[in-house]
Write a structure and sequence with these properties.
Elements lengths: L11 E4 L7 H14 L5 E4 L6 H9 L2 E4 L10 E4 L8 H7 L3 E4 L3 H15 L3 E5 L5 H7 L6 E4 L13 E6 L5 H12 L4 E4 L5 H14 L4 E5 L5 H12 L4 E4 L7 H4 L4 E6 L5 H11 L6 E2 L2 E2 L5
Helix pairs in contact: 4-5, 7-8
């Protein structure tokens, strides 16, 4: 039986909207679930999404994770995660008789397309993002010419004499980080072309957290510790001065953190499933009559 967390003085829990899976993650998970319902094994090339609890659920359905395309057996089934993969991956797998299920988020595909287009047009490509993130690695592989990756607040390395620079962004970056990078590059090159490839849903989640941060007694961010977009929500809430608790699942709730907090916000990463968010709501608001989002609530939705 699930253990309840004493809500103490909590009177209201506000949910940052949108919540639950973003469009790209929902699309990828649905494709993967459909494949797992068929006979045989589905090999996920890397973690399909960055949420350990959801991955465990998919493992129980039959998902087998592998580190690289080479680990998928000839004639098998491979799933390309929402973060995407180098464009050569699918054709190389298909040459070995592998059935490829492509779960790449359409917004990530757009970033790949934009980066490739800039490169073909002769621009040195700069990618705003985490160089270690699989999405950024996939975008980088879409570039045929010079390319540099810069994290938030960093100035990218450019070869001497570079005059034309094109910029794209990892879809989960903050808009302010893109604006700062653009401003710095504008004073360093003769021609600058920028594609804002930040996902609109990501930006909406970030705005919702910033809005809650100044009004509530604290914010609980629920999502994978390996999730870039979840980490950005934590950063935004902390930068706004809000007390923040980052958890992957409701059982990690720190009871001491809840003391003396009457209003608490819940923000969820784009890879956090609704069932985990509902569990957290139920633990915080287990009794009838407590308000959720300012409305009378009979418990958990």
């Amino acid at each position: 039986m699930e253990e309840k967390v004493s809500a103490g003085r909590i009177q209201r829990v506000e949910i940052a909207r949108p919540t639950g899976f973003c469009f790209g993650v929902r699309r990828a998970v649905e494709k993967l679930e459909n494949a797992l319902r068929e006979p045989g094994v589905v090999h996920g090339i890397g973690s399909p999404i960055h949420n350990p609890q959801e991955i465990e659920r998919l493992r129980k359905m039959g998902l087998v994770l592998v580190d690289s395309p080479e680990d998928v057996p000839n004639g098998g089934v491979a799933f390309i995660r929402a973060h995407g993969a180098p464009r050569r991956t699918a054709p190389e797998l298909e040459q070995r008789g592998v059935r490829v299920i492509d779960g790449t988020c359409p917004f990530v595909e757009t970033a790949q397309d934009r980066a490739g287009k800039l490169s073909r047009e002769g621009y040195t490509v700069v990618i705003l993002g985490d160089v270690r993130h699989p999405e950024v690695q996939a975008i980088r592989e879409s570039v045929e010419g010079p390319v540099s990756v810069a994290g938030p607040g960093e100035m990218p390395f450019l070869e001497p004499g570079v005059l034309r620079v094109g910029v794209v962004s990892q879809t989960t970056q903050k808009r302010k980080s893109l604006e700062r990078l653009t401003a710095r590059l504008a004073g360093a090159v003769e021609e600058l072309r920028v594609y804002n490839t930040i996902c609109g849903a990501t930006a909406a989640r970030q705005r919702a957290v910033a809005d809650m941060a100044g009004r509530l007694d604290g914010i609980i961010v629920i999502g994978g510790k390996n999730s870039a977009n979840t980490g950005k929500l934590v950063e935004i809430a902390r930068a706004a001065g809000a007390p923040v608790l980052w958890i992957e699942q409701p059982s990690e709730i720190d009871r001491g953190w809840l003391e003396n907090r009457e209003t608490v916000g819940i923000a969820a990463g784009a890879s956090t499933p609704e069932w985990l968010i509902h569990q957290l709501q139920h633990m915080l608001l287990p009794t009838k009559g407590v308000k959720e989002d300012g409305r009378e609530n009979d418990g958990c939705e």
